[in-house]
Specification:
The chain has 9 helices and 9 strands. By secondary structure, it is an alpha/beta fold. The two termini are 23 Å apart.
């Protein structure tokens, strides 16, 4: 597989995925999802709450019946107190299965730890769907190392999704933990923030700043799988370029 791919939820995916938090069911958006897969994307990240459920519905429409080799990840339980209750998660999982037009969600994240519901209870509700084959693999989002270890006491954890970018390295300890344990670390907002070193490297290498940012995240650890969000096939191709970009100069960002 080399450094450009990672085996996540039993699918070999290129390490640059696609975030879809602005995706709607407009026909050009549905077409974009198909174009993204044609361009090489194999890891599409969505959530129950994105665009009021339209993101999942658009993906379901775009890939209906054709998505065996495309990893579609979704999430539920976002929004604060009470959102991680088992009955809330059950309703959201059922809706996600319908919207994505699938019998089994390949990767399902607990979107946030509910301050009022024990993590074990929330994950127990998700595990019930694993036990009956409707969820294949489980992830957690916005968590620290202690919470990941707690979560693994309930169900195997395939992926952790936290906010992380070259300019926002607050979860370095989580990246290191995931690296040691072979868990995918999926940075959201991977392009946030500016760094003069990025600008300089992009100019020197003749690529966009986003390509440099993503390449530096790929270099950070072999388990890092960024999911930059875009609705532009041009930007998507720039993002995928990071898979081929060699950042060898010690002055490059993220060294």
């Amino acid at each position: 597989m080399g450094m450009t791919h990672f085996r996540l939820a039993d699918i070999d995916v290129p390490r640059i995925g696609l975030g879809t938090n602005r995706l709607t069911t407009a026909s050009d958006h549905v077409t974009f999802v198909r174009e993204a897969v044609a361009a090489g994307v194999r890891h599409i990240d969505t959530a129950h709450l994105y665009t009021g459920g339209d993101s999942e519905r658009a993906i379901g429409e775009a890939l209906d019946g054709t998505s065996e080799d495309v990893l579609i990840a979704t999430k539920g339980g976002f929004g604060g107190a009470g959102q991680g209750r088992p009955e809330v998660l059950q309703a959201q999982i059922e809706q996600s299965l319908r919207s994505l037009r699938t019998d089994a969600i390949r990767l399902y994240y607990l979107h946030r730890v509910d301050p009022e519901t024990p993590l074990e209870e929330s994950l127990g509700a998700i595990k019930a769907y694993v036990d009956r084959g409707a969820i294949c693999h489980v992830g957690v989002s916005d968590v620290g190392v202690e919470q990941i270890e707690q979560a693994r006491g309930v169900v195997p954890i395939a992926a952790v999704q936290n906010r992380y970018s070259p300019a926002d390295r607050g979860h370095d300890d989580v990246v290191d933990f995931c690296t040691r344990e072979g868990i995918a670390f999926v940075p959201y907002y991977p392009l946030r923030g500016d760094d003069p070193r990025v600008t300089a490297a992009a100019e020197r290498l003749g690529v966009t700043e986003n390509t440099v940012k993503l390449a530096s995240l790929l270099r950070r650890s072999p388990v890092v799988l960024p999911i930059p969000g875009t609705l532009s096939i041009e930007h998507l191709r720039e993002n995928l370029q990071a898979l081929e970009l060699e950042l060898d100069d010690p002055d490059d960002i993220g060294a």
